[in-house]
Amino acid sequence: MQHYTWLVAIFISTLVNMAIAQSTLPPTSRTVYKCNEKGKTVYSDAPCLGATKVDVEPTRGFNKDTGREIIGNDVRRETRSEMMAEAIKPLTGMNADQYKVYERRYKLSPKSKQACKRLDQLIPQAEFAEKHASPEELAIAKNNLFVLRKSYSKNGC
Q: What does the pLDDT look like over 45-87, one tens digit per residue?
């Protein structure tokens, strides 16, 4: 019986975390695109044609000279979510990154969720195709990747 009590507590805690996360600003994208527009380099969270993907990992707090760590609410929420993912991993089989994707897509429509799953497979293939494209095929490969990334962004993946 105590086992079920823990499961219920974890489930309720997960729902509360999701409600808190949904009631605040939407999460910022950690994917940054480096674009060349009119000869200038521009960084954006929105994809552009011929963009180079730059993965960014923000810092998780600041340690003052006193040794005290200062962290914001967003980092606390993220840390709590990672601990929750580890706690329920035996039940769900999801690691922290997979759980983060699950949380982000939780309120999406079934159609968008399905599109996101499809795009999760197609985008890496398109990135590979762009890297290995011949000069004649490069423009088509870049355009295909741009369309997939725009769809990913549009669906809220």
A: 888 888 888 877 666 666 656 666 677 777 788 888 888 888 8
Phi/psi at 38 (5° precision): 55, 40
As given in the structure block, the two tokens for residue 106 are: 């939780």
pTM to 2 decimal places: 0.63
Instruction: Give per-residue pLDDT as tens, 87-120.
Output: 888 888 888 888 888 988 999 999 999 999 999 9
Longest Cα–Cα distance in the chain: 66
Q: Is 64 helix (H, G, I), strand (E, B) or coil?
A: coil
Identity (one letter) of the amino acid at 74?
D
Would you kindly state where each structural domain of the chain is located, as residue ranges? 108-157
Q: How far does Cα 112 stand from its chain's mean position?
A: 15
Amino acid identity of residue 18, one-letter, is M
Structure tokens at 132: 């290995």
CB 99 within 8 A of CB 81: yes
